[in-house]
């Protein structure tokens, strides 16, 4: 059995609990650090990582890695405290939805500190089987890391990238669709129509959007706030979304069907070979909703 120790900051949260469970399955001594109580079976330390008390070095004794299962800004604030408590060969593993700011802050503080970013591309409440996890590394050609091996052993798929590439991709895959869903919700809230009547007649596209909106609203707001706020690339995607809406409004205002058709053809071309498979996916979703 492995006797190595891993400290999980924010281990009482959903992502922290997920990582802790997986590491414990492989025999690691997992120590959870959080400001709220945890059901963790191993060592637990009630600490606010933004203002840790003195003499906390014993928490990190024997640690081979520290997982930062924290919001981006909190994770970055915790870097100096952890760096001062561990050796330079301890691996730092942030699970942030934005990775490059943490990476740059870490290298400014401890340039030799090993870094492996981990971002599960799914809700920790779901089954992990077949789910994709983004792994951020300085060198994409480096040998497989221990955390990658354990995540794959638990049934997940791995996608490697640099921290910068990760943030650009997350702006497209997370910030953009979430912004569209939130915009839809804000427009819906301003409607003067009877929503109950809408529920009786709404077609599958509306039901799909309502399902996406509801999914967002039942989760903590800070999850989606961090995605929009912390990723510098997100502003470009929101601007592109606003520009697309303005273009649609312009075409309708000018009654320019030809331009509208050309715009849709351009989008279809962008999707390329994924167009038909996406249409099949949509039909499957609609059949489930019906």
TrEMBL record:
Domain (Prephenate/arogenate dehydrogenase) ranges: 4-282
This protein's UniProt keywords: Oxidoreductase
InterPro entries to which the protein is assigned, alphabetical: 6-PGluconate_DH-like_C_sf (IPR008927), Epimerase_deHydtase (IPR001509), NAD(P)-bd_dom_sf (IPR036291), PDH_C (IPR046825), Preph/Arog_dehydrog (IPR050812), Prephen_DH (IPR003099)
Highest taxon in the source lineage: Bacteria
Keyword field contains Oxidoreductase: yes
Classification via PANTHER family: PREPHENATE DEHYDROGENASE (PTHR21363), PREPHENATE DEHYDROGENASE [NADP(+)] (PTHR21363:SF0)
Manganese keyword on record: no
Pfam family, one: PDH_C
Protein name: Prephenate dehydrogenase dimerization domain-containing protein
């Amino acid at each position: 059995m492995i006797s190595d120790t891993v400290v999980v900051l924010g281990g009482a949260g959903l992502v922290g609990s997920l990582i802790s469970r997986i590491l414990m399955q492989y025999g690691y001594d997992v120590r959870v650090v959080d400001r709220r109580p945890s059901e963790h079976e191993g060592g637990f330390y009630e600490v606010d990582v933004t203002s840790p008390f003195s003499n906390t070095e014993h928490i990190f004794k024997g640690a081979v890695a520290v997982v930062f299962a924290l919001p981006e800004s909190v994770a970055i604030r915790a870097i100096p405290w952890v760096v001062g408590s561990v050796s330079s060969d301890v691996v730092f593993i942030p699970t942030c939805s934005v990775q490059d700011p943490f990476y740059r802050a870490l290298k400014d503080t401890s340039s030799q500190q090993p870094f492996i970013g981990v971002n599960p591309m799914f809700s920790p409440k779901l089954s992990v089987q077949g789910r994709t996890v983004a792994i951020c590394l300085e060198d994409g050609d480096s040998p497989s890391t221990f955390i990658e091996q354990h995540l794959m052993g638990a049934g997940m798929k791995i996608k490697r990238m640099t921290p910068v590439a990760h943030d650009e991709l997350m702006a497209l895959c997370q910030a953009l669709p979430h912004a569209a869903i939130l915009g839809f919700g804000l427009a819906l809230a301003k409607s003067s129509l009877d929503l109950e009547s809408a529920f009786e007649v709404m077609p599958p596209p509306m039901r799909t959007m309502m399902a996406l909106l509801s999914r967002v609203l039942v989760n903590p707001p800070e999850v989606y706030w961090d995605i929009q706020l912390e990723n510098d690339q997100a502003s470009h995607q929101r601007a592109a979304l606003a520009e697309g809406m303005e273009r649609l409004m312009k075409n309708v205002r000018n009654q320019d069907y030809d331009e509208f058709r050309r715009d849709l053809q351009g989008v279809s071309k962008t999707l390329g070979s994924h167009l038909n498979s996406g249409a099949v996916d949509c039909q499957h979703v609609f059949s489930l909703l019906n």
